[in-house]
Design goal:
The chain has about 350 residues and is α/β, with parallel strands linked by helices. The protein contains 13 helices and eleven strands. It has two domains: about 50 residues, no CATH class; about 280 residues, NADP-dependent oxidoreductase domain (TIM Barrel). Helix 11 packs across helix 12.
Length: about 350
């Protein structure tokens, strides 16, 4: 390959040299020649240095994070022994779609299954949660290390204290010091905590100065947005991950399918579903359009048990954002409603 710099605007000699200072900050164009083999002429074309890469429009999927649900009742029917293959297919589907964040919990066999199913090379940044502080701070540290081993990772992206109450308690500083030590040793790139609005996440963030805070926020529970908590956290330089975005699947349940504990909230849910139907907007599309559209959030954690569920979410995320009054689509008293949901569902 041979290359020679071309003078801009056809200038040559002294004129070209005189123009050099004026164009120093601009891209240099080179003539590049590639030989094609014996008996064939060389290809010649202009090349810019540095190369100009076309800007890619931001995609909603850039902010979508995956929480894999291992519950059998959420998984698609599969032959015996196909569980691992189904999980590999789910993760590969996520990787192919451009999903880069996977959120995990230290519960059951989920971490080990994920560790056996990552695509290679894995494109994922993995967040790990601690076990409850009630098990002891030594156990919290040991289990965080064990999580990386089970996941088959030399290091994780983030370690999150699973409960803000753990940090607010008497051993909170000790817990945070252990987490900071794991970060200093390079086992985790960032540390932070999971919190609810009742935990006072902004005050905790000011006290501990985390890298990352994970908060529940959904179409039905917009308090993190409406109270200004997201703005305050963002002003502190904290990355924000939104969780519980599907609010336990409430918008996808008819009145008859609601658990008995939720029956008193049926009229509110029916009103919200009716407004979405009148606007011809699918509930999943509305949920993801609202949360992915919040500029303060760096990631929106959505749960999926199968590649089919993930594909449905991807389609909804890529749909045009509906023109809706989001404030008209939230529950009037979300705190007691979603506290009930958390008791009967572990969905993200």
């Amino acid at each position: 390959m041979h290359g020679e710099a071309l003078a801009f605007g056809g200038l040559k000699g002294p004129d070209a040299r005189g123009c050099k200072g004026a164009i120093a900050a601009k891209t240099v164009v080179q003539r590049v020649r590639f030989g094609q083999g014996v008996g064939r002429g060389a290809l010649s074309f202009a090349r810019q240095t540095p190369p100009v890469i076309p800007n890619r429009a931001p995609s909603p999927v850039d902010k979508l994070a995956l929480a894999v649900v291992h519950a059998p009742e959420r998984a698609m029917p599969a032959p015996v022994g196909a569980r691992e293959e189904s999980l590999r297919f789910l993760l590969q589907t996520a990787a192919d779609a451009g999903v880069t964040v996977v959120a995990t919990r230290p519960e059951g066999d989920g971490e080990r299954l994920l560790g056996q199913a990552w695509p290679f090379p894995s494109p994922f940044q993995v967040t790990v949660r601690t076990v409850p502080l009630a098990e002891g701070v030594d156990r919290v540290e040991a289990r965080a290390r064990r999580s990386l081993e089970r996941l088959g990772l030399p290091r994780g992206d983030a370690l999150l204290a699973a409960s803000a109450a753990d940090l607010a308690g008497a051993e909170g500083r000790d817990l945070w010091a252990r987490m900071q030590a794991l970060k200093d040793r390079g086992l985790f790139r960032r540390i932070g905590f999971c919190a609810s609005m009742e935990d006072g996440p902004v005050l905790l963030a000011r006290r501990f100065q985390p890298d990352l805070v994970q908060l529940p926020c959904s179409l039905l529970d917009q308090r993190a947005h409406r109270t200004g908590a997201l703005d305050e956290l963002a002003s502190l330089g904290v990355d924000i991950h939104l969780s519980s975005v599907f609010a336990g699947g409430l918008l996808f349940m008819s009145g008859d399918a609601l658990p008995p504990e939720m029956n008193r909230y049926a009229p509110q849910l029916s009103r919200i579903r009716r407004r979405l139907a009148e606007a011809r907007v699918d509930p999943m599309q509305a949920v993801l359009a609202y949360t992915l559209g919040l500029p303060q959030a760096s990631a929106v954690v959505a749960s999926a048990a199968s590649a089919a569920e993930l594909r449905a979410m991807l389609a909804a995320a890529h749909a045009p954002a509906p023109d809706l009054d989001w404030g008209q689509l939230q529950l009037e008293q979300p705190a007691p409603v979603l506290a009930t949901v958390r008791r009967i569902s572990s969905a993200a």
